[in-house]
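pinned: reference chain
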Amino acid sequence: VQLQASGGGLVQPGGSLRLSCAASGNILSFDYMGWYRQAPGKERELVALIPGIGGTVYANSLKGRFTISRDNAKNTVYLQMNSLKPEDTAVYYCKAEIRRSDYWGQGTQVTVSS
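pinned: its structure tokens
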């Protein structure tokens, strides 16, 4: 499985971005897909997960600002990020879990700065 993340960039505080993660397989067959992020000098952390079946999961600190969704027909998962803050600056990674194996995309840089 290959994951292609896109949509990162430079945005001012308070702005919005939408990240996309296109998968090479049928995402309905995946255990889940998700977004993680890694800021400089910090460990990679969970942002949001969306399982093949069931509800979404968010990092508590991001609830209300970030929304994960998917388009099954396009095998694509999205991360809508609103009210961005400088502390959201990080490389954002897409991940898929398929039969307990992890697959990672290449990451997309998000920089929140004035």
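why pinned: The CA atoms of residues 60 and 85 lie 16 Å apart. The longest strand covers residues 90-98.
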